[in-house]
User: What shape does this take?
Amino acid sequence: MRGSREGAPTRKGPTLQTLQMVESTLRRLSKPVSLNRVKELLPRKVMHPTLRMAIEHYKRLGCVAEGSKGVMWVLNENPDFWKAAARWERR
Assistant: This one.
């Protein structure tokens, strides 16, 4: 690979603006949607590989789930949920 250093990423990731756009779009949806539908709903055009990298980023963080019906925002922001989760037994 020309111009890349050892251990450096070979492809640039999505910008913060793109991540925020994807997040706000997914948060508004109440059911899983395809990546093509997400692209249609975004306020500006995003290349498919960039959208895929954004989705993978949120999947690693546990904010997005992906299945046969598409992707969906799953992060629970209810404070009661997190209070209960803090009391769960650690494994």
Summary: The chain has a mean pLDDT of 86. The two ends are 42 Å apart (CA to CA).
